[in-house]
Amino acid sequence: MEIWINPACSKCRSALTLLDAEGADYTVRRYLEDVPSEDEIRGVLERLGLEPWDITRTGEADAKELGLKEWPRDAASRERWITALAEHPKLIQRPIITADDGTAVVGRTDEAVRDALSH
Q: Exposed end of the chain (fewer CB within 10 Å): N or C?
């Protein structure tokens, strides 16, 4: 199991606390320092069953600067979104937990983190 975190994020810290309390075996990836490649983002999206705009933090300053709220959310624009996430990792929703069985969750709630633990 791997968890992508920003240590400054309270949701990330809560997820880590819950994983520790459950005795989970996991690896921490500080994704702002160890930035995921476009291929890694595609892989996580596939595991999540989501599109890039579904895991984009559109309220961030970078998102406003890029005008993301106006970007089309369709198959033709998918790669543009993935490139933006790779170039601006602050835009990636967090924490993302990838389970050993190939699934993944955005662990913003205790329920989502427990879901990842059940895989």
A: C
